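Consider the following input, taken from an annotated entry for SOSS COMPLEX SUBUNIT B-like protein (Salix viminalis).
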Amino acid sequence: MACLKDIAPAAENNINTQFIVLDKGRTILEGRNKTCLALVADETASVHFQFWGDECDGFEPGDIIRLANGIFSYSRNTNLVLRAGRRGVIEKVGEFAMVFVETPNMSEITWIPDTNRSNKCDVI
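Applying the prediction step yields:
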């Protein structure tokens, strides 16, 4: 499993990681879709995680979540978020007992396209 500090924006569903939900924002309706943004973290970094649909009601702060085949990319409103996407899966694997740090927040880092790999980005 990848540590959050090691993820980078990419157009691929290949992130497998585990984290704790620290805070969850309000649920927003975007047309027929329900979304919710959360701050999640592991022992190396934090990141904004976007829940979709029923996921918004299925997870709360303190939940430990395992993500399989996730994607770290820009959302419709140009925020960089980690999410399960269509091919990914999230599942609750525990509660409250996980070491974490809140910085750095990988969603707030400035990334630039990797000229050698068109579907990847690097830190400035």
